[in-house]
Amino acid sequence: MEREDFGALLAQVMRRVMDAERPILTAHGLSMWAYSVLSRLADRPMETQQALAKSIGYDKSRLIALLDDLERDGLLTRQPDPSDRRAHTVTLTPAGKARLHAAKTDIHAMEDDLLAPLSPTEKRHLLSALPRLAQEP
User: Fold this and answer.
1) Domain total in the chain
2) pLDDT, tens only, 47-68
3) Positive or negative, the Cα torsion across 95, 97, 100, 106?
């Protein structure tokens, strides 16, 4: 029996994850892109707007409107970059950290439900392997 294509399986899983995440993020007042921004800023507390757009794979010209909304909601701040006055650094606020934490808590609970068919060992192996696969070569 021939195994299913890896990419097709990942696409099916991603559709399930995104469909399950969307209402959770909506309940927290976030879009998937807003969640991506907050998550990235939690990993790297201060990013330039351009580096942030590149790191999440988002069009830098569209990022400004998204950052405007997040800043208006008090979830991040933008300041001129001291090393390049044309650039701005983006930083999470305490409210942004709290909103991200609340959303992540609910998303992790959803993921636990999604991964319930796996044994604890399978789940541990999958979750430890995925970050290595996600890294760019």
Assistant:
1) 1
2) 788 889 999 999 988 999 999 9
3) negative
In a domain? residue 96: yes
CATH number of the domain that residue 88 is part of: 1.10.10.10
Domain-located, residue 126: no
The pTM is what? 0.86
* Sequence-separated contacts (24+) of 95-104 with Cβ below 8 Å: 96/38, 96/41, 96/70, 97/42, 99/28, 99/29, 99/30, 99/38, 99/75, 100/35, 100/38, 100/39, 100/42, 102/28, 103/24, 103/25, 103/28, 103/30, 103/35, 103/38, 104/39
Domain that holds residue 95: 16-115
N-term to C-term CA, the chain: 31
Assign 3-class secondary structure to 39-72.
Answer: HHHHHCCCEEHHHHHHHHCCCHHHHHHHHHHHHH
